[in-house]
């Protein structure tokens, strides 16, 4: 997403792509596994959610297609227009996916008008002012996260520009996320009367911590500590998601029009036996996956550099 | 209307996805074998061949991955009633596929592409084998979900949902194992047929007595042998599958032949002109063959559509329980016919190689090039037969397709279907253009510095 903002030329853009190149495919699978796990563990949630947010999710699908293909196809033709097309596809795909991610979760945490058939408000109903602020917050936070990752993985002018973008995105992320958290908290939670609901201070505290993590990350960027800043933006994203689910619990699709209409975690959950099987499988294989994905990051741990002025001399000369 | 559109959309996105999946499974295995030969024999020709086919593999993989993501969303988007009904069971293999297979595949493909210079040759070889194992495991778990729809096992229906009672029964489902072998062997043949067509064409175009011609001759022989072995095995497994289907889904077996009434020693029609309703204008029939396929006996009984209709109506209530017969009849024949042609082409190739006449036959070259399309046709028609033959059921005996669809407007489904057709047309054209380009890539440049299309970081972009 930040690639067009930091890149001066084609080589810069290729470096941006290559910075995530070795790991993006594995990361994308986390999304797929999350989808599959939701299907298995909460069939009712998966079913109602997907048909309810029909067109929004189709936009995500097409965004993911554009993004995924652009990584693989960009380098296949040595033609500036061809690469331009894939740069645009990658940018637009990433932008749409991030925006809808934010819009969707802001709507969840605020609650949706539900009927017995689930959410039936259509795409326009999802695009309310609060959700749009949430969507922009997600954009800013992900742009911040991405630009910090880039400044961590690159060097030279590209790194400096990535740091500049990170400062701007960081400021925007702090303001937008704080605004979203405050607005959601002010709007209240009609489902807080459900048995097992957490007191409103817990999600609020998690949200505030997420904003604080962003502030710290922004300060770290200014001081040039990219590694720690990346940990900070990562923590902010995790805390935000924690706040979202803590606020919704025990609902998984909270209703804004009456507590009883919400889809609760108990009603949506799978049969205990399925959950047992899934837990055992996940318990064995998730650590394994983390282990070999961790190894991938280790293998590709070094910063990317621009080719040296004389290309033929580059491979050995700039190995750092 | 929503139902019809949702079915069309699913048919389009699945068949398109499955153009690339078997290609990916087949080429991953082929590249892994070639790279192993290169390392074990310290042979530069095999090394270049593995890189050459590796680039075609990556194009196929990219399209396969993005179109696969779509399918996971499809169930919830267009088939949410189905998803809620089967999620307890169906979701488990899907999630496990992601965790066990897709993570393996996607993580190690990154390492294989970008790690050629950073990993030792042995570790680098291990990454492509892990990718290949990942693609095959992936097929296993997806087919576990599909086999349950054909032949549900290890479940109970509680409160309007099918719940899992025995996970091992799900994995031990006989339907799963035969369709897994049939699918994976067919996939290896698909990759092999592509390699065969491209290799013989490259060998023909290369300068006489050069390194390139020798290399692609070798690849031609290798691919022809691979296709011959895998297609013959696919056919044998397919025969087991037919016998299982005769027991588990007798309506589908009857629909494969459009056999209206139960017969002993039923014949098999090679083709029918006219209609399939029992009074064809012209037919070529092979006596007893259907009984042999279904029951492995000369006079075995094959139950007819009318009898099955009566049985199912008695069990499930009034309704039409027969699939669309012209579709099942012709898709079955298309699949089997394409398979037989593949055996013929690959056997011809192996025979020519044995006689050291691979280069001489212009007709074989044409047949092998056309043969690239045969497994693609067989894969698509086989799945169309399997899925259309199960209708009107979405889960055999438990849920009808009409009951599984989402409550979304027909306009929304029409819109998204049109968008898929547009996007997939572009993707399909791009994939073909890129594969053709990769197939023309100069052989002597592969693996040399300055080869900009090499699937490693661009020159100079070092870590």
Describe the structure in your own words:
The complex is a heterodimer of chains A (320) and B (463). With 320 residues, chain A is an all-alpha fold. Chain A has one domain. In chain A, 75% of the residues lie in helices and 3% in strands. Chain A is globular. The two termini of chain A are 26 Å apart. Chain B has 463 residues and is mainly alpha-helical. In chain B, the strands form four sheets. Chain B has a two-stranded antiparallel ribbon with strand order 1-2. Chain B has a two-stranded antiparallel sheet with strand order 3-6. In chain B, strands 4-5 form a two-stranded antiparallel sheet. In chain B, helix 1 (2-41) crosses helix 6, helix 2 runs antiparallel to helix 3 and helix 2 (44-78) packs antiparallel against helix 14 (410-439). The radius of gyration of chain B is 24 Å and the shape is globular. The N and C termini of chain B lie far apart (55 Å). Classes of the chains: A mainly alpha (320), B mainly alpha (463). Chains A and B meet through helix 2, helix 3, helix 4 and helix 12 of A and helix 2, helix 3, strand 2 and helix 14 of B.
Rg of Cα set of chain A: 21 Å
Low-confidence stretches of chain A: 308-320
What's the mean pLDDT score of chain B? Answer: 83
**Overall number of structural domains of chain A:** 1
Count of spatially separate domains of chain B: 1
Overall average residue pLDDT of chain A: 71
Shape call of chain A: globular
Number of helices of chain A: 13
The largest sheet of chain B is:
2 strands, antiparallel
Q: What structural category characterises the helix and strand content of chain B?
A: mainly alpha
């Amino acid at each position: 997403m930040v690639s067009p903002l930091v890149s001066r030329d084609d080589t810069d853009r290729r470096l941006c792509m290559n910075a995530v190149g070795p790991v993006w495919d594995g990361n994308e699978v986390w999304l797929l596994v999350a989808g599959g796990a939701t299907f298995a563990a909460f069939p009712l949630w998966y079913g109602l959610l997907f048909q309810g947010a029909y067109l929004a999710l189709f936009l995500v699908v097409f965004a993911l297609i554009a993004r995924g293909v652009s990584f693989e196809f960009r380098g296949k033709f040595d033609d500036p227009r061809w690469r331009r097309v894939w740069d645009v596809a990658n940018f637009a795909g990433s932008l749409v996916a991030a925006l809808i991610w934010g819009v969707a979760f802001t709507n969840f945490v605020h609650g949706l008008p539900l009927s017995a058939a689930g959410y039936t408000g259509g795409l326009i109903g999802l695009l309310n002012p609060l959700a749009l602020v949430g969507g922009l917050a997600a954009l800013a936070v992900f742009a911040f996260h991405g630009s910090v990752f880039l400044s961590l993985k690159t060097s030279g002018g590209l790194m400096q520009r990535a740091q500049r973008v990170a400062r701007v995105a960081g400021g925007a992320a702090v303001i937008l996320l704080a605004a979203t958290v405050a607005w959601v908290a002010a709007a209240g939670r009609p489902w807080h009367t459900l048995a097992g609901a957490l007191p409103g201070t817990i999600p609020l505290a998690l949200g505030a911590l997420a904003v604080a993590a962003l502030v710290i990350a922004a300060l770290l960027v200014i001081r040039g500590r990219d590694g720690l800043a990346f940990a900070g933006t990562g923590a902010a994203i995790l805390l935000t998601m924690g706040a979202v689910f803590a606020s919704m619990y025990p609902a998984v699709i909270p209703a804004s029009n009456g507590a009883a209409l919400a889809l609760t975690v108990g009603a949506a959950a799978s049969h205990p036996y399925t959950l047992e099987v899934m837990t055992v499988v996940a318990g064995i294989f998730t650590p394994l996956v983390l282990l070999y994905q961790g190894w991938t990051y280790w293998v590709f741990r070094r910063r990317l550099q621009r080719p040296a002025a004389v290309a033929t001399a580059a491979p050995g000369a700039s190995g750092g | 209307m929503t139902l019809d559109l949702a079915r069309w959309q699913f048919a389009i996105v699945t068949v398109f996805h499955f153009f690339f999946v078997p290609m990916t499974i087949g080429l991953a295995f082929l590249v892994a074998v070639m790279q192993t030969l290169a390392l074990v024999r310290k042979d530069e020709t095999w090394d270049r061949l593995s890189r050459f086919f590796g680039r075609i593999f990556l194009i196929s993989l990219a399209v396969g991955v993005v179109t696969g993501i779509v399918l996971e969303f499809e169930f919830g988007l267009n088939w949410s009633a189905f998803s809620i009904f089967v999620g307890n069971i169906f979701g488990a293999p899907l999630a496990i596929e992601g965790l066990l297979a897709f993570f393996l595949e996607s993580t190690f493909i990154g390492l294989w592409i970008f790690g050629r210079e950073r990993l030792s040759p042995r570790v680098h070889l291990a990454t492509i084998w892990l990718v290949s194992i990942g693609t095959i495991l992936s097929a296993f778990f997806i087919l576990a979900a599909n086999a349950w729809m054909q032949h549900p096992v290890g479940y109970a229906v509680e409160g309007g949902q099918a719940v899992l009672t025995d996970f091992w029964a799900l994995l031990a489902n006989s339907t799963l194992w035969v369709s897994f072998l049939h699918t994976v062997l067919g996939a290896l043949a698909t990759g092999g047929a592509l390699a065969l067509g491209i290799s013989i064409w490259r060998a023909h175009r290369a300068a006489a007595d050069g390194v390139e011609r020798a290399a692609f001759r070798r690849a031609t022989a290798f691919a022809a042998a691979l296709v011959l072995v895998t297609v013959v095995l696919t056919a044998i497994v397919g025969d087991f599958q037919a016998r299982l289907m005769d027991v588990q889904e007798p309506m589908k077996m009857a629909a494969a032949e459009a056999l209206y009434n139960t017969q002993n020693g039923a014949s098999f029609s090679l083709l029918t002109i006219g209609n399939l309703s029992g009074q064809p204008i012209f037919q070529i029939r092979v006596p007893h063959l259907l009984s042999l396929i279904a029951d492995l006996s000369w006079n075995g009984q094959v139950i007819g559509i009318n009898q099955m209709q009566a049985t199912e109506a008695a069990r499930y209530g009034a309704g039409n329980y027969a699939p669309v017969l012209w579709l099942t009849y012709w898709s079955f024949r298309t699949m089997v016919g394409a398979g037989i042609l593949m055996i013929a082409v690959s056997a011809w190739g192996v025979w020519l190689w044995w006689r050291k006449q691979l280069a001489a036959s212009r007709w074989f070259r044409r047949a092998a090039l056309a043969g690239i399309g045969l497994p693609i046709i067989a894969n698509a028609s086989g799945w169309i037969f399997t899925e259309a033959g199960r209708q009107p059921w979405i889960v055999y005996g438990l849920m009808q397709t009409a009951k599984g669809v989402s409550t979304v407007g027909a306009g929304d489904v029409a819109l998204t279907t049109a968008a898929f057709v547009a996007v997939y047309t572009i993707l399909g054209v791009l994939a073909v253009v890129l594969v053709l380009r990769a197939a023309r890539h100069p052989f002597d440049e592969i693996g040399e510095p300055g080869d900009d299309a090499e699937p490693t970081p661009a020159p100079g972009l070092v870590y």
